[in-house]
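Project standup — Tuesday

K.O.: blocked on the structure for the chain from last sprint. Re-posting the sequence here as requested.
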Amino acid sequence: MDKAEHLADAAHLRISDAAWLARGRVRLAMLEAYAAQESERLLQQQLTIQQVMTERLEQQRLVGEIAWTNVVRSHLAVVIKRGRSKGVGSRLLTF
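H.V.: unblocked you, prediction finished:
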């Protein structure tokens, strides 16, 4: 009877250990999902800001305050941020 109790205790500990390991994996997956969502939200926010900046620079260019070359960098930044928000990555230059 003593051996059966030890085997039952060992089985119970293995089950508890497996449950704890599974809990840790689920928690890690949830944290990774949250981090990905937050990253996407921040990239979208950056894109919106960059688009507004580009529009304002374009307005300045149209009235002759700045040259086209000054607007190009902002246009490129918008394109890069769009690519990042679509998961393309940052293989292009960052500004």
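K.O.: great, moving the ticket to review. Residues 2-62 form the longest helix (61 residues). Confidence is low (pLDDT under 50) at residues 88-95.
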